[in-house]
Amino acid sequence: MVSSDLKLKLMVLPASLYILLLTLYPLYKCIELAFSKMIIQGGKIITLYAGLENFVRVFNDAIFYKSLETTLIFTVFPVVIELILGLLLAVIVASSKYSRIIVPIILTSMVMPPVTVALIWRFMFYPNIGLFDNLVRMITGYSISWLGDPFWARISIIIVDVWHWTSFVFLLIYAGYVSLPTQYFEAASIDGGSDFQIFRHITLPLLKPTIALATLFRVIDVLQAFPELWQLTFGGPVYSTTILNILVYLATFNFHDLGYASVVSIILVLAAFFATVLYSKFRRG
To answer: 165, 21, 54, 27: which is closest to 106 by C-alpha?
Structure first.
């Protein structure tokens, strides 16, 4: 007879093999490439040990630091805005008698494919005929190069990300909010607590784990963002919207520099790992 313990291990085995083959092995190859360089000799590609040469090149590269700055901006500002809007929408919609109608409408943006979202917004940002440019010209009399100016290109990708993913944050917080125990709110109302006091001292503390989880998901999503940004700006102008994930793509497919791309990939993995560790500490503390 096979013990239940062994049965459980056998059931977990396929998933474990999947993780080993499709996660750990690519990570190992990435680390190996980060310490290697490739040369073409006699019509063959030869891999040589390069030590820390690739790391030195990355940390001495101005484009890397510009991409790092863009990644930080694109991580902080959209995520903070999405958390604020998602929280406010969740509280407002949960108290509305039309929530069953409103929730699917809000979630419409989330289910749209990233490439479709990017193409729609790219047309809206288009000079002279785009909706945004026409609105700005009607109000100020001036035209803005939304995707052609480095500053406005960064603003544009933040706008698109907020529009696309606020609904995802709303969904998580809304699900957490409607599942909160009602006795705390009833007791606070009986004691004469105002809506703001109830929100600050009861709603927010109870929703902290949900907000932390939404933050973790969005940070990891932003770190691996690609389709929307690529379709909107292709990383330009002058690398102003090139986040680290796009830099990996450019280094790999445009410059064929796998060592450089592997180092940047490792930095992205460490950033995601660091975000996960912070979330775990927050949950425990």
So the answer is: 165
From the CB of residue 204, how many other CB atoms can be counted at a distance below 10 Å? 12
| Helix, strand, or coil (residue 257) | coil
For residues 86 and 166, the answer to whether their CB atoms sit within 8 Å is yes
Q: Could you list the residue range(s) of the whole structural domain that residue 278 is in?
A: 62-284
CA distance 214 to 87: 11
Q: How far apart are CA 221 and CA 271, in angstroms?
A: 12
Residue with tokens 């049965």, as numbered in its chain: 7
Question: To which residue do tokens 């990570």 refer?
Answer: 27
State which H helix or E strand residue 39 sits in: strand 36-41
Residue 117 φ/ψ, nearest 5 degrees: -60, -45
Q: Is residue 246 located within the same domain as residue 208?
A: yes
Find out whether 153 and 236 touch, Cβ atoms under 8 Å. yes
How far is 285 from 280, CA to CA, in rounded Å? 9
Alpha carbon distances (Å) from 263 to 8, 49, 132? 38, 14, 38
Contact between 200 and 174 (Cβ < 8 Å): no
Predicted TM-score (pTM) above 0.85: yes
Q: What is the pLDDT of residues 146-183, one digit of tens each?
A: 898 999 999 999 999 999 999 999 999 999 998 888 88
pLDDT in tens, 201-230: 888 888 998 999 999 999 999 988 898 999
**Same domain assignment for residues 79 and 29:** no
Please give the distance of CA 130 from its chain centroid, rounded to a whole number: 26
Question: Do 185 and 269 lie in a common domain?
Answer: yes
